[in-house]
Amino acid sequence: MTGAQALVRSLEDEGVDILFGLPGGVVLPVFDQLYDSSIRTVLVRHEQGAIHAAEGYARATGKVGTCIVTSGPGATNIVTGMADAYMDSTPLVVITGQVATNMIGTDAFQEADITGITLPVAKHSFLLKDARNLPEVVAEAFHIARTGRAGPVLIDMPVDVSRQEMNYEGLGQVRLPGYKPTLKGHKRQIEAAARAILAAKRPLVYAGGGVISAGASKELAQLARENLIPVTHSLMGKGCFPETDKLSLGMLGMHGTRYANYSVCETDLLLAVGARFSDRVTGKLSEFAPHAAVVHIDIDPAEIGKNVRVDIPIVGDCRLVLKELNEILASLRGNKSSPRRDWTAQVEEWKRKFPMGYELEGKLKPQYVVERIYYLTKGKATICTEVGQNQMWAAQYYLYKEPRSFISSGGLGTMGYGFPAAIGAKLACPEKTVFDIAGDGSIQMNIQELGTAMQYKIPVIICILNNQYLGMVRQWQELFHEGRYSYTDMSHQPDFVKLAEAYGAVGMRVNRTEDVRGALQEAMQITDRPVIIDFWVEREAGVYPMVPPGESILNMLGGDLDE
Amino acid sequence: MNKHTIAITVENRPGVLTRVTTLIRRRGYNIDSLAVGATDDPTVSRMTVVVEGDDAIIEQVTKQLYKLIDVIKVVDLTKEHLVARELVLIKVKADHSVRPDIVQIVDIFRARIVDIGRTSLIVEATGDQRKIDALEDAFRPFGILELVRTGKVAMIRGAGEDNRRK
Questions:
Q1: A404 Cβ partners below 8 Å, 6+ apart?
Q2: Is the Cβ of B67 closer than 8 Å to some Cβ of chain A?
Q3: Which is it for strands A248-251 and B120-127: parallel, antiparallel or unpaired?
């Protein structure tokens, strides 16, 4: 068979069920094979939509997201998505077409050195020169994407390789002598961590996206509950531990809760699990968790000790490590329970004194919209977000109880991520109600995917928190640039309702608090097309609490009802 | 800032050199020299990189290098007992009046003359970094027309480390 046939066959053999893509000259042979493949191919309107949809699919399921685009501009359009997946450790296999091998390097039509361009943002990449390597390359690509610290893998496929004849005998062998992720933690380190936990007077769990990637929510909950340790999480860790639990402190860091940040500053033992001490979390590093010994469990050894000095490093899959940790703790604990009443009382008091809140009166508040979504869906929806204020309010005012229910671009912070990611998430989990909480700036970046959603009858609900500003940037200008709103006024915007309807989708506008509920309920009834609800919200609403950049997380602005 | 000599054993796949250097560049580390070549195993290459940085930086460099799929082994050779060598070719201005002096320097350094021109000579020398530096200094007064160094390669003495794949 040809290389193109072999590629499609190996994708089928890898269990790929959905592929996002946009055809072009050099991928025609492959698309010809996709025409009658069992793989469901979703035609997008912009390659960036394809890769973010693959990301949404991967985030919603834990499986490898896949997309296929053509060479040249098709390939360069997926660079943002690769950088995004690289930062957030999302498993992707991205197939880019390439000009024929004898044309590479000649500035041929639609040629781009995509393997060169994506070198720093790919976990690994392959440039196929011979179709006979295809089965091995595909097997290795998927293996690399999904194992260890997950990430995006690129397969660059020249058109003559697609046409080359070869024998396909099933998926190839994975031969990667330089790649052996450590899964099982070192027993002595885990024992040391267990003893440190039992001795600690004010322990705190700091959980990140790695807990969700590893599927370790159950083990984390067991650790927290059996040892009465409060849990705070990063943005990427939302949903790893139910925020409705008494032990949950919500998110920490720049826009985290006051009580989470206070707890970090007072803790004597910080248990970092599947997290990477991002600058959004730590603020001023020298003042982060100043009284704490640090235990750091992570599958990537390079993260341990990268930003923060670690006392007990444990390299491994956090589900396996937590499982063993729980067993050792159970045996060491015996029948004793040390309730640490002073610490839990202190944490409770902070939660009581500094709850999240906002002023409901006056113009429609964006936080209210998010809260309504939470109550109407009973917290069972899948929430995708764009980036900026909309993202932070979605993180703060909806209580996430399940892993993979919050899908957001954390590390790269890509505006335009949410809508295509929501499309991917809805296709992955059709039984879920999927929202994209967006800003008026972000939503315009991949609005063309309304075409995709209409074609495949994908009923995602886009809630635009429309303040006619590039909101988060405006907030920074208000706080740090004396209110000089330089190029953040976006009052020149389309009528989003008419825009939705132009695509054949449903459009609604809400500008009164009392109309929010009805609009959301109506939107949730629609099953065959996307919905845009254009919420006109308070223009200068801000995200609080806020830790100014580079400052200690103790120095929060806002979020104190006494102020 | 100290200079560390790092030996990296990599799979001999296309692009691996670029991957390693891109990683080092991207993380902001300074490469002093880099030498790469085949080993006795045709599927494996060996890179010797001299990087500037303190121990913490080198630890991060090493860990980041291990994340590359093609990297098999990374060893910081700096503190080990090493045999370290570098090769240099120097084209020196040499008219017949100074030629005997140059030949004398060549003998002292146990270097070799590999090319004779009417007004210049090409000298080839191998040695550790200090010897090569000294040779360069010795020739400078005569006028160096051209100079090229390969960068350091190094190996641990004795039974020590075996960098081949197991």
A1: A59, A60, A61, A62, A212, A239, A382
A2: yes
A3: unpaired
Residue of B nearest to A144 (CA): B69
Q: Are A321 and A191 in contact (CB under 8 A)?
A: no
In terms of Cα–Cα distance, which of B60, B53, B3 is closest to B33?
B3
Q: What is the pLDDT of residue B26?
A: 79
Phi then psi for residue A227, to 5 deg, are -115, 5
Q: Is B68 on the interface with A (CB under 8 A)?
A: yes
Query: pLDDT tens across A238-259, in order?
Result: 999 999 999 999 999 999 999 9
| Beta-carbon separation of B15 and A124 below 8 A | no
pLDDT in the model for residue B161 = 55
- Domains contained in chain B, CATH given: 2-80 (3.30.70.260), 85-153 (3.30.70.1150)
Q: Are A312 and A192 in contact (CB under 8 A)?
A: yes
pLDDT tens digit sequence for A153-169: 999 999 999 999 999 99
Q: Is residue A34 over pLDDT 70?
A: yes
Interface check A139 vs B, CB under 8 A = no
Alpha carbons A446 and A49: distance in angstroms, whole number:
7
**B-chain residues near A119 (CB < 8 A):** 18-19, 22
Whether B69 sits inside 8 A of A124 (CB atoms) is yes
- Whether A449 has a pLDDT exceeding 50, the answer reads yes
d(CA B94, CA B89): 15
Cβ contact, residue pair A301, B69, below 8 Å:
no
The residue of chain A with its CA nearest to that of B60 is A302
> ipTM of this complex > 0.95?
no
Residue type, A380: K
Does residue A563 surpass a pLDDT of 70? Answer: no
Surface of B (139-158) touching A: CB under 8 A: none
Q: What is the value of pTM for the model shown?
A: 0.94
Burial label for A52, CB within 10 Å (0-12, 13-18, 19+), is buried
Say which DSSP state A547 is in.
P
Residue of A115, A119, A302 with shortest CB distance to B63: A302
Q: Are A134 and A169 in contact (CB under 8 A)?
A: no
Number of A–B residue contacts, CB under 8 Å: 39
Which secondary-structure segment (H or E) carries A154? Answer: strand A152-158
Q: Is B166's pLDDT higher than 50?
A: no
Q: Tens of pLDDT along A278-322?
A: 999 999 999 999 999 999 999 999 999 999 999 999 999 999 999
- Does the CB of B28 have a partner CB in chain A at under 8 Å? no
Is residue A551 within 8 A of residue A283, CB to CB? The reply is yes
Q: Does A127 contact B14 at a Cβ distance shorter than 8 Å? A: yes
Residue A180 sits at φ, ψ, to 5 deg, of: -140, 85
